[in-house]
Design a protein that fits this description.
The chain has 654 residues and is α+β, with helices and mostly antiparallel strands. The protein folds into 3 domains: 2-103, no CATH class; 142-307, no CATH class; 328-412 and 474-653, Cytochrome P450 (Cytochrome p450, Orthogonal Bundle), CATH 1.10.630. 53% of the residues lie in helices and 9% in strands. It is elongated. The structure holds protoporphyrin IX containing FE.
Length: 654
């Protein structure tokens, strides 16, 4: 008997093997037998490895196959055959006209074949789907949506509006970037470029940072570090290879090659949209004009938040500066800030600006031989901003204690172990971040020195106000609106007031923003003029004509300096300080992008133009700028911002 069984088994096994061979030689051929093209399937697995890949999402794989195999082709998920259609008429036929025959959606492989109570609406079919759809639709009637609107708006304002952002963000970005977890973008412009290579200025990128849902990174803690730094790649975005944990920190925090130059080079390599990591913070870099315009202007409501410094708390608080504030809080700060730059406010400050300009040019005259224009312009812009923004009337040009501190903050590398910690572990709570910040403040650091100096300046100004000093500066606009922190229950809802902390941080922002940008811009401009004597001559002619016509300089008359206006814009186009290049064909618009675009456009733009025009009038009426052997090439340094290391020229008396 056992012999008989052995005999049967002996025959059955090869038969089974043969049957399997026949079966598997036929599976994965169903599509081919229908003459459908498609990628070659592997035995048993079909095209599973490609369509389940983590590094290249399925829809990108399908997109590439569509290009290769045409508007209708097939592939296999294991042994499940799929047909991919990209012909509009056919899609319409399938989804609309023939819906009854094609109404069933492909199910997840683990889903039961028959509908049951567990079947979700996305996978349900036939009558079961109709029932679920009827109930589901009730939640989305216009009336139901009106009822939920307040909640949606509230969530969106609070910055955690995953769903809201997903729905509202414009389509292109949605498809490309935001498949699931991205909750919002922050716009953060650091676009600078290089003089040595003017045509490439156009490629300077805009950086958008993506913020990921904090909760999800917390819950996925187990495999978090094995997956970090892969979010961008999983969305099909190219970019430089990130190091584990550190991402691309070493490159973007380098002092020798400022961040925006690194980004410019990556843009050339990876194209108009790519990603990189600052520690574990993913950034997306965009250099496409239409998209930037969409982000900064048209979709400002969705992309209005600018990337924050790694140590900045995640939620707005009284310490949040206007440059980093968001939503309603930003609007409040912007309203107060704007009061400082109205034409009337600028007229009030004009005498101070003119006085500082005269002093700096006098000082240039005292120095013989070569001069570093950057040094002088830094003295000038710092003098102006200290006097008009901070009420420091007795500050001395060329003896300003703020100068070294500000220079140091803006030109030194941002590398700091505590900052790096925050970049490596972005999920750290704000409380821990605040503790780290307190720790950092014990280590000698220029930023903390600046903070304590600023505190003293504000206290001094408050005292002067009490004793009746009637000078009106920007700071007074803030101090007029001051209330004690304890008086404000919900700080961000206090419409017409600023807490003392808010005032403090706005002053620091004005100081840093007002000092660095304008002095760099002027230094670049003189470098430009020394290399283009023909442009300089035309400018001098305009200056002479202007001064012949106007005995005294008046703010409103400065608009007549049309050629000067164009030169300032053109030099900013060559050396963008914080904005965007454009395509060579967009040149006229590009020139206007140096101060940003949309509602978050530079707040100090009018002051910057005013300062530049006044000092240029003074300078060019007395000197001609000539290049020396040390003028070229210009060396760019910095970390977040890019500055010329120095701009050496000779001033020849006219
Ligand atoms: C040539 C000089 C300057 C240039 C090229 C420049 C450029 C910029 C750029 C590109 C932005 C970002 C705009 C955006 O995100 O779209 C910005 C923002 C800002 N700038 Fe300027 N800036 C200059 C001078 C100044 C001055 C003199 C001040 C103030 C005293 C100032 C204060 C600010 C502030 C407060 C913001 C943030 C505005 C907000 O977020 O609402 N800037 N600047």
């Amino acid at each position: 008997m056992s012999c008989c069984w052995h005999f049967i088994l002996l025959l059955a096994l090869p038969a089974l093997f043969l049957a399997l061979c026949v079966y598997y030689s036929r599976v994965n051929r169903k599509l081919a037998s229908r003459r459908l093209p498609g990628p070659q399937p592997e035995l048993l697995f079909g095209n599973l490895r490609e369509v389940w890949s983590y590094d290249k999402p399925r829809s990108l794989v399908l997109r590439d196959w569509s290009k290769k195999y045409g508007k209708i082709y097939g592939f296999y998920e294991g042994q499940r055959p799929f047909i991919v259609v990209s012909d509009y008429a056919m899609i319409n036929e399938i989804l609309v006209k023939q819906h009854k025959n094609f109404g069933a959606r492909a199910r997840f492989i683990m889903q039961e074949r028959k509908d049951g109570p567990d079947t979700k609406i996305t996978e349900a079919r036939g009558h079961h789907w109709k029932r679920l759809r009827t109930f589901g639709s009730m939640a989305f009637t216009p009336k139901a949506l009106r009822n939920t609107f307040a909640t949606v708006e509230d969530s969106a304002t609070r910055d955690s509006a995953l769903d809201y952002a997903l729905v509202r963000c414009f389509r292109f970005a949605t498809i490309l970037l935001m498949s699931q977890k991205m909750i919002c973008f922050e716009v953060f412009a650091t676009v600078k470029s290089q003089i040595e290579n003017p045509p490439n200025v156009h490629d300077a990128p805009l950086v958008i940072k993506c913020v990921w849902n904090e909760e999800s990174s917390g819950t996925q803690h187990n495999n978090y570090y094995s997956r970090v730094n892969r979010k961008l790649a999983s969305r099909g975005l190219p970019g430089p290879s990130p190091e584990l944990l550190f991402g691309n920190l070493r490159e973007v925090w380098s002092y020798d090659k400022p961040r925006s130059l690194v980004l410019r080079d990556w843009s050339k390599k990876y194209g108009k949209i790519y990603g990189f990591y600052e520690g574990q913070r993913p950034f997306i870099v965009v250099s496409d004009f239409a998209m930037i315009n969409e982000i900064l202007v048209k979709q400002h409501e969705n992309f209005g938040a600018r990337a924050r410094f790694v140590m900045q708390e995640r939620k707005d608080g009284p310490d949040t500066k206007i440059t980093e504030a968001r939503g309603h809080h930003w609007k409040r700060l912007r309203t107060f800030g704007s009061m400082a730059f109205t034409p009337k406010a600028l007229r009030n400050t004009f005498a101070t600006v003119e006085d500082s300009a005269t002093r700096v040019v006098d000082e240039m005259e005292r120095r013989q031989g070569e001069v570093d224009m950057l040094e002088y312009f830094q003295e000038y812009t710092l003098d102006v901003i200290c006097k008009i923004a901070l009420g420091m009337r007795d500050v001395q040009m060329f003896n300003n204690e703020y100068l070294d501190v500000c220079r140091d903050i803006l030109s030194r590398p941002i590398r700091h172990p505590i900052f790096a910690l925050s970049a490596l572990f972005p999920a750290l709570g704000d409380a821990i971040r605040a503790e780290l910040m307190a720790l950092a403040s014990r280590i000698p650091n220029k930023f903390f020195k600046l903070m304590s100096m600023m505190q003293q300046t504000i206290e001094k100004r408050k005292f002067e106000r009490q004793i009746g000093d009637s000078e009106r500066d920007f700071i007074d606009i803030f101090l007029d609106a001051e209330i004690d922190d304890s008086e404000v229950e919900e700080r961000h809802n206090s419409e017409r007031k600023l807490s003392s902390n808010e005032i403090f941080f706005q002053c620091i922002t004005f100081l840093l923003a007002g000092f660095d940008t304008t002095s760099n811009s002027l230094a670049y401009l003189t470098h430009f003029l020394s290399n283009h004597p023909d442009v300089q001559q035309k400018l001098i002619d305009e200056v002479d004509a202007f001064l012949a016509e106007n005995e005294t300089i008046e703010v409103d008359k400065l608009a007549d300096l049309k050629y000067m206006d164009a030169v300032i814009k053109e030099s900013l186009r060559h050396y963008p300080l914080g904005s965007v290049w454009l395509e060579p064909t967009d040149r006229p618009r590009a020139a206007f992008q140096s101060f940003g675009e949309g509602p978050r456009i530079c707040l100090g733009m009018r002051l910057a133009y005013l300062e530049e025009k006044v000092v240029l009038l003074k300078l060019l009426s007395r000197f001609r700028i000539e290049k020396t052997t040390s003028t070229n090439p210009i060396k760019l340094v910095g970390s977040i911002t890019v500055s010329p290391e120095r701009v050496m020229v000779k001033l020849m008396k006219r």
